[in-house]
């Protein structure tokens, strides 16, 4: 089974390294990991997708909490949530194949974002399954290159992941980015 | 007032209660060393190798419960600390290591004596910091001490580049307590958890407490005793749990695990309820997990949520501070007696005596176990014993009962040879009124014996008891059992330890017969102004029994083959 969780952590140099080092050390099977800024300037959010059992998902959560920079961890798989992945796919096309690609894009609500002599780049956003099936169809046409962002997720409605006790910035925090 | 980063460092350390640091200077930490001269209230112990500094800080912390501090320079100084940091991490010792670093401007350029020590120690510290601005020193040091001693304690490293030590700023020390954003206070159990716990206890006929190091870390010894007496539950201890419950107590069974006593392991396998109090089910404790304690329900209380269900699945896991949780349940416990269960265990216990080495006639041999037993007897059994790693460590655990917490200091989780002697120096410097014995092997002692000079220079009265079996005994034992007696790379030559002591002007004595052990104690006690070295020339081919081979079920122990009848225990 796949389990998703969302973690808020202090946006300090080296923190990502700590998280990744923890996953490696504890031998967790991480399927996807995305990191980005949040509504709070000092916090970053990580969406983690792990392949494993529920017990393993709980272990990941407990281990994350051992890192002093981790502020909040929430499981998303057990609550209503929206998950999205984005892929950019460069497809090999000729005059004949181009309309075929355009048609697929239409069905999947993907967009063509670049057109060249013998290739196009399409962009697709959505749940993993949808993207997977889109990619499968494109494979037959000919994929030259592909990049995916990994999963980002957010709980619906009142299922919000914010720091439980509010977040108070500590210290003067003038760390330069040296790591 | 404007102070340099180096001065601010000492101002902060002093405010954390530090009056003793173990260290070794070098280029990148020189500003801090120079500033130290302005703070005579801090005593610096110059070690002979940075590993020694880390182990001394560790021994100091384990003996006193305070945070130990080690200081080293960048590069090789910092990397020499690594083994000591990992040792502290595995056994949850509160420790802060301060390292110098190359100036911020050249970090990342492979500068002279640059190593990425925060990168290197990331997996072996509770947390670490690279301070790149003098403004950050105050809150970083405060946070470092807070993290080292709070929750599940552990080592924290603070790496300070040379230019940051030199830079000046206004020194301003905040009054408010430290808070760390990701730190959740862990304390009491939920009412539901307590209800379930009490229910499980009341349904049990064969309960057993597995007492671990967490009891001492939480200061729960008195609560444990009350619990035990009320419910009449016997207690099995881990190696690091020794001392948490007086071993003379009738309900204290002794050590569990690979070299634990047979009756203790049998009790674990036969219990119907296991109460794991601050112990983490190390593989040396459980043996084969698929056959471990199959007849019992299990309750685990640990301050570290990630320890619960890590190795052994439990029926009830309580994340909390042991002392607080015990205080919550104590008023609600009912008196029980469990007499049948005690009788069963006592039966197994009696069987043990027939195979016990201290009932073995020594003949013309000197057994390390006899020496350790006699040291216990002639010292009054109330010393702080610091061991190294190997057979002698296990014999200490088996034959030196401890009555008080923090009186056995030993490297359990990492099993670091070379730990014993420096850790004993740290322990004695922390508790100068205690009698401290370092019980070490001929192999491990040679790893850190450079610290003899430190002990002499600092006039530290540590009694060094070398169990010289001319072998890496514990490894030899494995070769005997599992590698068809191919004793490769385990016979070991040593210097003449007494001559070595002479070179340092350390009083020394060599013991070759059991009758001389009591004299050696008198000898050690007659020298109080520095270390004393005693070499016990012990039996070469002895084996630590019982032994659960790695991966075997806990009750499948290899026992001392020969049953012994005559009792030579001359109590
Ligand atoms: C050669 C050799 C042989 C060994 N053989 C044996 C053996 O036969 N038997 C044996 O027992 N060990 C043996 N060991 C030691 C073993 O490897 C482990 O180090 C030991 O079992 C760990 O004991 P522990 O779980 O009590 O302590 P630790 O590893 O220190 O764990 C302490 C636990 O307590 C928790 N804790 C901390 N503070 C609190 C608090 N306030 N409240 C609640 N919980 C808290 C921690 O989170 C942790 O889970 C051997 C070691 C060596 C080197
Ligand atoms: C630093 C380190 N290296 C290797 C080992 C593996 N090891 C464990 S016990 C042991 C033998 C210890 O020999 P000695 O110090 O003479 O003690 P004895 O077992 O003979 O009592 C060895 C080599 C270790 N624990 N630590
Ligand atoms: Mg030896």
Give the helices and strands, then pairings:
The complex is a heterodimer of chains A (179) and B (571).
Chain A: E1 2-10, H1 15-25, E2 30-37, E3 43-51, H2 54-65, E4 70-75, E5 81-92, H3 97-108, E6 111-115, E7 119-126, H4 128-141, E8 143-148, E9 152-155
Antiparallel strand pairs in A: 1-3, 1-4, 2-3, 5-7, 5-8, 5-9, 6-7
Chain B: E1 2-4, H1 5-15, E2 20-23, H2 30-36, E3 43-46, H3 50-64, E4 68-72, H4 76-80, H5 82-90, E5 95-101, H6 117-120, E6 127-130, H7 137-149, E7 155-161, H8 162-166, E8 168-170, H9 191-203, E9 207-211, H10 214-218, H11 221-231, E10 235-237, E11 252-255, H12 262-270, E12 273-277, H13 283-286, E13 297-302, E14 316-319, H14 322-329, H15 339-353, H16 368-379, E15 384-387, H17 391-399, E16 408-409, H18 420-430, E17 436-441, H19 442-448, H20 452-457, E18 462-468, H21 473-482, H22 497-503, E19 508-511, H23 517-525, E20 532-537
Parallel strand pairs in B: 2-3, 2-4, 4-5, 5-7, 6-7, 9-10, 9-12, 10-11, 12-13, 13-14, 15-16, 15-17, 17-18, 18-20, 19-20
Antiparallel strand pairs in B: 1-8
Helix pairs in contact in B: 1-2, 1-7, 3-5, 3-18, 12-15, 16-17
Bound molecules: flavin-adenine dinucleotide, thiamine diphosphate and magnesium ion.
Flavin-adenine dinucleotide binds at residues 91-92, 152, 212-214, 217-218, 238-241, 255-260, 278-280, 282, 284-285, 301-304, 307, 321-322, 389, 393-394, 412-413, 415, 474 of chain B.
């Amino acid at each position: 089974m796949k389990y998703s969780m969302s973690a808020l952590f202090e946006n300090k140099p080296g923190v990502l390294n700590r998280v990744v080092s923890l996953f490696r050390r504890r031998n967790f099977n991480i399927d996807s990991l995305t990191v980005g800024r949040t509504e709070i300037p000092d916090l970053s959010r990580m969406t983690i997708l792990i392949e494993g059992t529920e017990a393993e998902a709980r272990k990941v959560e407990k281990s994350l909490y051992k890192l002093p920079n981790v502020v909040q961890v929430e499981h998303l798989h057990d609550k209503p949530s929206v998950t999205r992945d984005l892929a950019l796919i460069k497809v090999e096309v000729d005059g004949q194949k181009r309309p075929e690609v355009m048609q697929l894009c239409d069905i999947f609500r993907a967009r063509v974002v670049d057109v060249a002599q013998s290739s196009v780049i399409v962009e697709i956003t959505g749940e993993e399954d949808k993207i997977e099936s889109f990619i499968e169809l494109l494979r037959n046409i000919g994929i030259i290159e592909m990049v995916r962002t990994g999963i980002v997720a957010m709980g619906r409605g009142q299922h919000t992941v914010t720091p439980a006790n509010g977040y108070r910035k500590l210290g003067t925090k003038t760390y330069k980015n040296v790591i | 007032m404007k102070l340099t980063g180096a001065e601010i460092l000492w101002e902060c350390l002093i405010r954390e209660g530090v009056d003793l640091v173990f260290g070794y200077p070098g280029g990148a930490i020189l500003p801090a060393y120079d500033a130290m001269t302005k703070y005579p209230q801090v005593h610096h112990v110059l070690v002979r190798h940075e590993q020694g500094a880390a182990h001394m800080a560790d021994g100091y912390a384990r003996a006193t419960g305070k945070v130990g501090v080690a200081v080293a320079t960048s590069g090789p100084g910092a990397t020499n600390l690594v083994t000591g940091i990992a040792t502290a991490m595995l056994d949850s010792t509160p420790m802060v290591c301060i390292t110098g670093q190359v100036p911020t401007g050249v970090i990342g350029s492979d500068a002279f004596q640059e190593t990425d020590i925060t990168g290197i120690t990331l997996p072996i510290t509770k947390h670490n910091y690279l301070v790149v601005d003098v403004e950050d020193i105050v809150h970083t040091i405060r946070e470092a001490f807070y993290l080292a001693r709070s929750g599940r304690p552990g080592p924290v490293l603070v790496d300070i580049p040379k230019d940051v030590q030199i830079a000046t700023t206004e020194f301003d020390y905040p009054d408010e307590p430290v808070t760390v954003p990701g730190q959740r206070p862990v304390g009491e159990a939920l009412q539901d958890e307590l209800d379930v716990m009490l229910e499980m206890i009341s349904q049990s006929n064969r309960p057993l407490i597995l007492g671990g190091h967490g009891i001492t870390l939480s200061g729960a010894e008195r609560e444990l005793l009350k619990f035990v007496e009320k419910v009449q539950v016997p207690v099995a201890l881990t190696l690091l749990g020794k001392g948490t419950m007086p071993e003379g107590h009738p309900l204290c069974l002794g050590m569990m695990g690979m070299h634990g006593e047979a009756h203790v392991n049998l009790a674990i396998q036969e219990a119907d309820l296991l109460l794991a109090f601050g112990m983490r089910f190390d593989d040396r404790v459980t043996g084969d997990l698929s056959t471990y304690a199959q007849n019992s329900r299990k309750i685990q209380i640990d301050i570290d949520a990630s320890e619960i269900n890590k190795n052994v699945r439990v029926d009830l896991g309580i994340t909390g501070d042991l002392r607080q949780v015990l205080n919550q349940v104590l008023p609600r416990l009912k008196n029980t007696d469990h007499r049948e269960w005690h009788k069963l265990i006592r039966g197994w216990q009696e069987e043990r005596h027939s195979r016990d080495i201290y009932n073995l006639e020594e003949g013309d041999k000197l057994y390390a176990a006899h020496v350790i037993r006699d040291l216990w007897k002639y010292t009054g059994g109330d010393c702080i014993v610091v061991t190294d790693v190997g057979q002698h460590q296990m014999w200490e655990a088996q034959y030196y009962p401890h009555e008080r917490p923090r009186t056995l200091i030993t490297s359990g989780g990492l099993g670091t040879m070379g730990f014993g002697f420096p850790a004993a120096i740290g322990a004695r410097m922390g508790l100068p009124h205690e009698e401290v014995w370092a019980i070490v092997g001929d192999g491990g002692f040679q790893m850190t014996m450079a610290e003899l000079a430190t002990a002499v220079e600092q006039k530290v009265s540590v009694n060094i008891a070398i169990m010289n079996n001319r072998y890496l005994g514990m490894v030899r034992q494995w070769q005997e059992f599992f590698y068809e007696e191919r004793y490769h790379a385990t016979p070991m030559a040593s210097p003449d330890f007494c001559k070595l002591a002479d070179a340092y002007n350390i009083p020394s004595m060599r013991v070759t017969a059991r009758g001389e052990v009591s004299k050696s104690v008198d000898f050690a006690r007659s020298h109080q102004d520095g270390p004393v070295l005693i070499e016990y020339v012990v039996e070469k081919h002895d084996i630590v029994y019982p032994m659960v081979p790695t991966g075997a079920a806990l009750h499948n122990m290899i026992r001392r083959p020969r049953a012994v009848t005559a009792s030579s225990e001359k109590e």
